[in-house]
Design a protein that fits this description.
The complex is a heterodimer of chains A (539) and B (698).
Chain A: H1 9-27, H2 33-48, H3 52-60, H4 66-73, E1 80-82, E2 107-114, E3 117-124, H5 135-151, E4 155-159, H6 170-186, E5 192-196, E6 199-201, H7 206-210, E7 213-217, E8 222-224, H8 228-235, H9 241-245, H10 247-253, E9 259-261, H11 264-275, E10 288-289, H12 316-323, E11 330-332, E12 340-347, E13 350-357, H13 368-383, E14 388-394, H14 401-406, H15 408-421, E15 426-435, H16 436-441, E16 451-454, E17 459-461, H17 465-472, H18 479-490, H19 494-498, E18 504-505, H20 511-522
Parallel strand pairs in A: 3-4, 4-5, 5-7, 6-8, 7-9, 13-14, 14-15, 15-16, 15-17, 16-18
Antiparallel strand pairs in A: 1-2, 2-3, 11-12, 12-13
Chain B: H1 2-14, E1 27-29, H2 38-55, E2 59-63, H3 71-75, E3 78-81, H4 94-104, E4 108-110, H5 120-129, E5 132-133, H6 138-145, H7 147-156, H8 172-182, E6 186-190, E7 199-202, H9 205-223, E8 228-232, E9 238-246, E10 252-264, E11 267-273, H10 280-296, E12 301-309, E13 315-321, H11 328-335, H12 339-347, E14 364-371, E15 373-374, E16 381-382, E17 385-386, E18 389-391, E19 399-403, E20 410-411, E21 418-426, H13 429-441, E22 444-446, H14 452-460, H15 462-465, H16 473-477, H17 489-509, E23 513-514, E24 528-535, E25 538-547, E26 550-555, E27 558-564, E28 572-577, E29 580-589, E30 594-599, E31 602-610, H18 611-616, E32 631-633, E33 638-643, E34 650-651, E35 656-662, E36 665-670, E37 675-680, E38 687-688, E39 693-697
Parallel strand pairs in B: 1-2, 1-4, 2-3, 4-5
Antiparallel strand pairs in B: 6-7, 6-8, 9-10, 9-12, 10-11, 11-14, 12-13, 14-21, 15-16, 17-20, 18-22, 19-21, 24-25, 24-31, 25-26, 26-27, 27-28, 28-29, 29-30, 30-31, 32-39, 33-35, 33-38, 34-37, 35-36, 37-39
The chains are: A alpha/beta (539), B alpha+beta (698).
């Protein structure tokens, strides 16, 4: 995607930026001219990072510079930079030489606005020592993280770093740890987002791993503990960077990254969009934006979406798109553990978290990966006051040795734990199957679901009719008859409804209207769990 | 109150009581067969039920297991399930239908369109049970259902017929011989056929052989009867048909003509009544011949006599359809008659209530067949999907939509892809066509590819507007295939301006947070935006300024004023551009600035970026698109009938690789280049989706 604009554009913009900074600086009118000159010189140096050659090289790789990225991410003229004068303090290996000092070092930090809302940002500068992490670099990052937590505003990190600043040795390692500690301290206090826009290897990967969301840029970003060369020397495996830790690997195989975007611009524009879903901190309610979609809109297509044969699949995303505002759904991990669908949407303008079993993939069963994916998402929503809407069509947990040996028991328990622990408004809609333990897990009434609905097609039962009959009437004849009886008794929403396990049986087309109304009521919900140092989720 | 209303209605119409309604139920409505068009059929059924309701007649819908929630089942008074999904076990199962009739005590059957509607056996069995068949009697169906026999009868009744061979053609060689006698070009068609299926045109001996083979295969699979006939092909004709109405007392009327020349693959796309081409004398001559044919076969009920009309207004009998046709509404519009009501009256044995001199031509009516088809591929290859959003333009005056689907319906490969018949009416042709433009612009269909871009282009094309059309209209007007609407410079500016305004409106809204905020929002205050918009590889720098909902967009020194409500949730985007009212549709709007707008029927992809983002775009790596010449993908969903190659084979450019069948049409897939076959990914009998990999070449 190329725009035939004049090549001089970059240089001009940089000049423009520099002159603006200088104008601001002049306002303070310091009397010592020589100091003034030095300030201007430093600022100018900071703005060009590793210099024009390295900037050109960065562009050639299809990547933008740290500052260009911030310009795209933040509202125009909203960026307030910190620590432009910080330099690294290393004096070994000739690092003390002037030409090895870059004002601001290898990261740009500060705060700014996204659609008017406050955010703290750091953007690693690959043009300065390959974006490597020095003590000073870490210190800058820690500073904005500390302030973000005090103020209560999210932190976005744009990662593009070759790793530790080897010349600094343990100083660099200490820096990583300082950041990790703050990632952990900030977890559940302010949303933290990592956007991987270049290499991120070794210890550096653990910062994104600790943040709430990790996004990647296709073809230009990599995440791995050790690169292909080390892999080759240790395990003798031949693997490319892309296969080992590219966007495709992490969004489809490992589940490390939550989504991948086409290129830097696409990623940053999407990140702006995504940011609008999030509250600033755990002290803020889920944001409400202006909404044009009528909250009482009926969705006639939902009345026919669930097929009559209970073995036939349908797309849960069709239900989600039909119900939420303007069919807009920001899906998290769309290509990983596709048997569960999670993501953000809005109902009458208010952010909600959506969790839904996906009958189209593996019948929508719960397995290790889908349980972990769902659990982490539910916990994020709960931590940040985002109501959870759960659509249930689950035939149970996936059987088999692969799952049992992999520990489906403890992984499945994570999702159960997350739903049970959550105190945000929880609305559940059983669209079809809610079988066995999986019924309990999927935000059931018993786990403090606030409003639980069943569609007329709902079947809440211990298991499917065939299996049930084989157990109840083992060795008996007339299995077909018994099966029909079982279907008649259990393959409908009544057994759950008569016990109050679902609050109402609703016409599918009215689902949006009902949920919007419930969310208004539940907006003032207050629920607290018993005091504890912290809970002990089965990790 | 319903009976009172119906009584009044019947009084005003006929002064006679049509008394099916005394019993528990009156008319049984059958939905038949996948051979033709189930969606289309559902729409007819709903159409029939509407008339029955007006007449106070109760209706029963029959349906298969899977259709129990279909629209026709909901609107009928009663519903009976006649079996599982396969049509041979339900809609085509005569025993099940006869049982349904007994069970409900139905006194009459309306057969819908399609297979059983023209089935002699079925009509016989009904007659044996004393159940009224709403439609012509067995004899007429039999006589007219067979093309060879009907031609002989027509000749005897002094109806103009096409020169040709009046018998069954035995094999390909005989076909070549006969073709030589008649003279090329010739038309090879199925004796039992209809709707363009099993029909091929041949210009030489080679094509005759191939046409014979294809037509007999198609005829066999579509109609279970592979008899073919050959006749002279009238080049560049119009297809004009006469609606007739005949009672059981030997009286018959002609209800004027319908112009159905706009066709693709011998299937009608746009129809109108009356025709711009016929003068009163020709009209009368055609009408009288149609009536004399109806009389010759003792026809009763509504029927259609199809003619080919050449440029000198010579007309030739083509065939007679013994059912109510898809395009019947336009005749209803200009004559004011309810054809379904007339059919029911006639079936019950009443005399015609009108004389020929009572039949008017009031105003003009146009019908567009809205299909779930991709018009960019051969003027329409079937597409499938779920109708995620569906809104008919019914709030517009003088617009009628006959459809059998609803939001959420699935369009599958097993059904003909008709979505609806969209009819507009006006005092003049111009008015009817303008209504059609509005109706198409306001028709919301999401989730499947549809042919509205093509329909919208046809009705505004100068040749169509001037009435200069023939059955070759589409290939002549679009010799390289349909490419969508070609924007003029002014239209291009309108489109760019709308996209820019929509982008800014969305940007501004994304800064509007409601409720008490702990940390204040500082929106980026701006009244002026510099944007870069890309459309079809062209890049435009735009200046946008705003005052309320009014946007002024400056493009290349020209100012465009756009205003509207900018409702970002609505599928329709009604706006005023430079004082002109337009309805666009926003099909897509992403965070990355992609905007798809449906404008003048065609959907256009745009990308709107801030100048900053646009200037940085040049650094973004280019993604390499897949080389498609060595890959053969299915252009449509369907099933694989035959695969003619295996890995390692050498194929020449244009050589047949496999045959895909969709909606009973066989399509030959050919190699795009001369190469060796690398791998084959399908086998006969497979079901494939659009874009599925079929064969890879080296």
């Amino acid at each position: 995607y190329r725009w035939p604009l004049d090549e001089a554009g970059d240089g001009q913009r940089l000049e423009h930026l520099a002159s603006k900074v200088l104008q601001n600086a002049r306002c303070y009118s310091v009397s010592h001219l020589s100091v003034q000159e030095r300030i201007e010189k430093k600022r100018k140096a900071a703005l060009t990072g590793g210099g024009q050659l390295r900037i050109a090289a960065q562009h050639k790789r299809g990547k933008l510079t740290a500052r260009e990225r911030l310009e795209l991410l933040l509202d125009p003229d909203s960026f307030v930079e910190y620590d432009m004068f910080v330099e690294h303090r290393c004096s070994d290996f000739g690092m003390e030489a002037d030409h090895n000092k870059y004002p601001g070092d290898s990261v740009v930090t500060g705060q700014g606005r996204i659609n008017g809302r406050l955010v703290y940002v750091f953007s690693q500068d690959f043009t300065v020592f390959g974006g490597s992490l020095s003590g000073a670099h870490a210190q800058k990052v820690c500073k904005i993280m500390d302030q973000a937590m005090m103020v209560g505003a999210p932190v976005i990190g744009l990662n593009d770093s070759g790793g530790a600043r080897i010349q600094e040795g343990v100083e660099s390692l200490a820096g990583y740890a300082d950041i990790f500690l703050r990632n952990v301290m900030a977890s559940g206090v302010v949303p933290q987002i990592s956007l991987i826009m270049g290499p991120c290897a070794g210890g550096a990967v653990y910062s994104p791993a600790l943040t709430d969301f990790t996004f990647m840029v296709k073809d230009t970003s990599y995440l791995f503990i050790t690169g292909p060369d080390v892999v080759k020397s240790v395990t003798n495996e031949d693997v490319t960077q892309e296969e080992l830790g590219g966007a495709k690997t992490h969004t489809t195989v490992s589940g490390v990254a939550h989504r991948a975007f086409e290129n830097d611009i696409d990623a940053l524009l999407n990140l702006r969009d995504f940011f609008n879903f999030l509250p600033l901190s755990n002290k803020d309610p889920a944001p409400v934006t202006e909404c044009h979609d009528p909250r009482d809109r009926l969705v006639p297509g939902l009345d026919t979406i669930v097929p009559l044969e209970s073995t036939k699949a349908y797309d849960m995303l069709d239900i989600v798109h039909g119900i939420v505002d303007e069919r807009e759904f920001f899906e998290i991990m769309p290509n990983y553990a596709k048997n569960i669908v999670v993501g953000f949407a809005r109902m009458n303008g208010r952010t909600v978290g959506i969790v839904g079993n996906q009958p189209k993939v593996a019948s929508g069963c719960l397995d290790i990966n889908s349980s972990v994916k769902g659990a982490r998402f539910v916990r994020f929503c709960d931590a940040f006051n985002i109501p959870i809407i759960t659509f249930v069509d689950v035939p149970g947990f996936l059987p088999g040795t692969a799952q049992e040996y992999g520990g489906i028991i403890r992984h499945g328990a994570k999702l159960l734990y997350a739903f049970a622990e959550a105190t945000v408004p929880k609305i559940t809609v059983i669209t079809r199957k809610a079988y066995g333990g999986a019924y309990d897990v999927m935000s059931s009434k018993h786990l403090r679901g606030d409003v639980n609905y069943a569609w007329p097609s709902a079947e809440v039962a211990v298991m499917g009719a065939k299996g049930a009959v084989q157990i109840i009437f083992r060795g008996k004849e007339n299995q077909a008859e018994a099966e029909a009886e079982y279907v008649e008794k259990f393959a409908n929403p009544f057994p759950a409804a008569v016990r109050g396990f679902v609050d109402d049986i609703i016409q599918p087309s009215t689902t949006r209207k009902r949920i919007c109304r419930d969310l208004e009521v539940l907006a003032s919900k207050k629920q607290t769990n018993p005091w504890k140092k912290h809970a002990n989720i089965p990790l | 109150s319903q009976s009172v209303r119906s009584f009044l209605l019947i009084q005003t119409v006929s002064h006679k009581h049509v008394c099916f309604s005394k019993q528990r139920c009156g008319v049984i409505i059958c939905r038949y067969s996948t051979v033709y068009d189930p969606n289309e059929k559902v729409s007819l059924i709903i159409r029939v039920i509407k008339t029955c309701k007006k007449m106070g007649i109760k209706t029963v819908a029959v349906h298969s297991d899977v259709d129990s929630s279909a629209v026709h089942v909901k609107v009928a008074d009663e519903a009976v399930c006649v079996g599982p999904a396969p049509t041979s076990k339900s809609y085509l199962n005569m025993d099940a239908i006869m049982n349904a009739i007994k069970q409900t005590g139905a006194q009459a059957v309306h057969p819908g369109y399609g297979f059983l509607s023209e089935n002699k056996e079925f009509a016989k069995r009904l007659a044996a049970e004393g159940v009224t068949f709403i439609g012509p009697d067995t004899h007429a169906i039999q006589a007219m259902g067979d093309k060879i026999e009907s031609k002989l009868i027509a000749k005897a009744a002094k109806v103009n017929t096409i020169p040709g061979f009046d018998g069954v053609v035995k094999d390909a060689e005989e076909a070549v011989k006969i073709a030589g006698e008649i003279g090329y070009p010739v038309m090879i068609k199925a004796s039992a056929g209809g709707g363009g299926k099993g029909m091929r045109i041949a210009w030489n001996d080679e094509e005759t052989r191939e046409g014979f083979r294809f037509s007999s295969q198609e005829a066999l699979s579509s109609f279970g009867d592979d008899r073919l006939l050959i006749e002279k092909f009238i080049d560049n004709p119009r297809h004009i048909e006469i609606q007739v109405l005949a009672d059981k007392h030997g009286d018959a009327l002609w209800l004027n003509e319908r112009e159905c020349s706009i066709q693709r693959r011998n299937q009608k796309v746009v129809e109108e009544a009356p025709s711009t081409f016929l003068d009163p004398d020709t009209r009368r001559a055609m009408g009288e011949q149609a009536v004399s044919l109806a009389n010759a076969v003792k026809y009763s009920s509504a029927g259609t006599v199809e003619f080919l009309v050449d440029s000198k207004k010579n007309f030739y009998f083509l065939e007679m359809n013994t059912r109510l046709q898809v395009e019947h509404p336009i005749t209803e519009c200009i004559t004011g008659l309810d054809l379904v009501q007339q059919m029911i009256r006639i079936a019950k044995g009443y005399k015609l209530q009108h004389k020929q001199s009572d039949i008017p031509i009031n105003g003009w009516a146009v019908e567009s067949r809205v299909y779930a088809e991709d018009p960019y591929k051969s003027f329409g290859l079937p597409s499938i999907g779920r109708l995620s959003q569906y809104q008919e333009p019914l709030d517009l005056p003088n617009v009628r939509v006959d459809s059998g689907i609803q939001e959420g319906s699935d369009i599958s490969i097993y059904y003909d892809p008709m979505i609806s018949k969209l009819v507009t009416y006006g005092k003049t042709r111009e008015e009817a066509l303008k209504k059609m433009e509005d109706a198409l612009d306001n028709y919301v269909i999401r989730g499947v590819t549809h042919n509205i871009p093509l329909l919208r282009e046809i009705i505004v094309h100068p040749r169509f507007v001037s009435g200069d059309i023939s059955t070759k209209f589409l290939p002549e007007v679009y010799p390289d295939g349909f490419k969508g609407h070609m924007l003029t410079a002014g239209e291009r500016r309108e489109l760019l301006a709308t996209a820019a305004a929509l982008y800014v409106a969305a940007q501004l809204r994304s800064q509007k947070f409601l409720g008490d905020l702990r940390v204040s929002v500082v929106p980026a205050e701006s009244r002026q935006w510099e944007l870069c918009v890309e459309l079809d590889k062209g890049v435009h720098m735009l200046g946008v300024s705003r005052s309320g909902n009014n946007y002024t967009v400056e493009i290349d020194g020209e100012k465009v004023e756009v205003s509207g409500e900018w409702n970002l949730a609505s599928a329709l985007l009604p706006i005023t551009i430079n004082g002109k009212h337009r309805t666009l549709q926003c099909l897509l709007r992403t965070a990355a600035g992609e905007i798809s707008l449906q404008y003048l029927g065609t959907s256009f992809k745009l990308r709107v970026l801030s100048n900053l983002a646009a200037s940085l775009s040049k650094h973004m790596p280019e993604k390499v698109p897949e080389d498609t010449s060595s890959i053969l993908r299915s252009p449509m969903p369907g099933s694989v009938v035959a695969v003619s190659v295996k890995p390692g084979d050498n194929v020449a450019e244009g050589q047949e690789i496999c045959v895909i069948e969709a909606m009973k049409m066989q399509n030959s897939m050919t190699a795009a280049k001369t190469a060796k076959v690398k791998s084959v990914h399908c086998k006969a009998g497979d079901t494939v989706g659009e874009g599925d990999l079929l064969v890879e070449l080296e």
